[in-house]
Amino acid sequence: MPTVSHKNYLFMYKLMFSLLLVVFATALFAQKQEPYEFKEIKRLAATPVKSQDQTGTCWAFSSASFLESEALRLGKGEANLSEMFVVRHIYRQKCENYVRRQGTAQFGEGGLAHDLLNAVKTFGIMPESEYPGRKDSDKPYNHKQLAKGLKTRCDEMVTLGKAGKLPVNWLAGIDSLLDVEFGAVPQTFTVDGTVFTPVSYRDYLGLHPDDYVTITSFTHHPFYTSFILEIPDNWSNGSFYNVPVNELMRCLNYSLERGFTVEWDADVSNMGFSPGNGIAIVPEKDWKDRSVSERQSAFKIWEPEIPVTQEYRQQLFDTQVTTDDHLMHIVGMLDEAHSGAFYVVKNSWGDNNDARGFVNASENYMRANTISFTVHKSALPVDLIRKLSIPSTTSITPVVRPGVNPEGSDKAAQPGQGTNSTRLRPQASKVQPQALPKVTKPKSSNN
User: Fold this and answer.
1) Which pTM does this prediction carry?
2) Are 58 and 326 in contact (CB under 8 A)?
3) 184-222 pLDDT, tens digit each
4) Where residue 269 sits, what CATH number does that domain have?
5) Burial call 42-64: b when 16+ CB within 10 Å, e when fewer
6) Distance between CA atoms of 137 and 128, rounded to whole angstroms?
7) Which domain holds residue 382?
């Protein structure tokens, strides 16, 4: 029997090793050329996608969509809430805040989720059919001239105030400007034969604004405390509960698993957000380092992402890579074949993208670009509620129309029903902080 010499053995070993490297490289290359492959894990009820058009009122559209899903969860049916009813009230409050702070406060179209909740608590809510908030419903919303006019009028009031000449009824002039743009607010309206006020309609829908809280994750304030987040559009000094980023992601998963959707404040101006493709990721490879073919296949072919730690997230915020750009509505969970957890996000830029108005955002994107989540208190883990000392939910007898089931339909809110979250646990990998590519930010901080 012939024997293999030592020299031949080494040759064969090197040959086999080289072949294995080729096979590995080929497999790796093939994997990188595979498209995104999503499997739906959880999809919660949501109303149709809308468009905020030429306004900076994403905060109102996303938060109204969030409350519409809450009404569905509570068995109240599909409500189409008037964003402009809330926007009108908030613009007036912004004007008063700006003038009373002698022109030093943030003034613009942007806002946050708690602005809508505060307005609903004070003024109620009404259907869009009863208050469309524009002269011509066939034309898109456009608040450019309105915002300019309000700012001019408020600056005039600031000047008069500093001179001791501010009229007692100066807010009446603001109301006149708002009535011209939005129309006068009706005191009562009728829905399915029942007469409501904005407040009684809010109560009928079972919406209790004090039952919602906002959580965030930043290291410049102590964890498990609340603080006023230092972002420009927090003009009303809303308070945020601060938790570690792993806890933040646990809250998101827990809420969705229990049937509660989540309102999301995020950055969308970084390289990884593609509204046209309906994909949001934290890509490992910088745009400037990509070939023409790689740029053409971006957001279509799967690619690896940068893992996001607490330290990296804080660096992005401190260097203003992650800023308060846009608010959207999270309505589901996905499992992507290559990388695991993704989330279904309802946008307010119309339904003309590849995902018909939605965006699939990766867990890494959530970790890096989330400013905050707004959730129902009951959607938070019990241990975290106790640790944060969050007050219990409101107990109010629901307002019921004749023939409507007072218990509603809350089957979707049962813990873990129909959910397989094996791959949706928060990541804990460590990376060294590094800067994400930066693009020019829009002039309006919320778009």
Assistant:
1) 0.83
2) yes
3) 999 999 999 999 999 999 999 999 999 999 999 999 999
4) 3.90.70.10
5) bebbbbebbbbbebbbbbbbbbb
6) 11
7) 38-394
